[in-house]
Amino acid sequence: MGVKANESTVSAEKMLAATGRHPDAWFSLLDSQNATTWTHTAIARWLHENSDGVDGWWCQSITIRYEQARGMRAPGQKADGTFSAASTRTVRAASSEVFEAAIGEVSESLSAQPDSINAGAKTPNARWKLEGRQRLLLTVTPGLEDRVSLGLTHSGIPDGNGVAPAKDAIAKLLARFDSPVASSPS
Hints:
The chain has 186 residues and is α+β, with helices and mostly antiparallel strands. It has 2 domains: 6-69, no CATH class; 83-185, START domain (Alpha-D-Glucose-1,6-Bisphosphate, Chain A, domain 4), CATH 3.30.530.20. It contains 7 helices and 6 strands. It has a 6-stranded antiparallel sheet with strand order 2-3-4-5-1-6, with helices on one face. Strand 2 (116-118) and strand 3 (125-129) form a beta hairpin. Helix 4 crosses helix 5. It starts with 5 loop residues before the first helix and ends with a strand. 28% of the residues are buried. Mean pLDDT is 88; it is low at 180-184.
């Protein structure tokens, strides 16, 4: 499954209702400022400062939609030009046990130990450096009763063609954990 473009996830009608302008009106305004020469951050900041109180989330959404419409960014592409893939799986287990087991599974799969572990965080996490700018982040989020959510995010993927294989690989890693309650690729 490919990454959806912003225009297919946020309708023009919703943007108009929330921001007071249709996407085409925002695009005309940004074009008049020569915003295709700006960075993502500069566009979002300009919108926030010049949009009469439009919420920051909407400024980001307008920016992404504009960048995609003007060929500055592919669907799913981050501001730095890379892509990411993520997947979660909810299991019945104690958070600390799952965290240690997950670190072991990921380390075995990568034939490498994590570069950092933060077991004491509200959401315990571990990070691995992969090839180039690529990284793998493991998170364990305690849930209700005896459930925890395991998350794996592969970031820094250099092009969109690497997203599907990365998503498959992390989903297979998470599938190693018994007693799933639910799982969802993102």
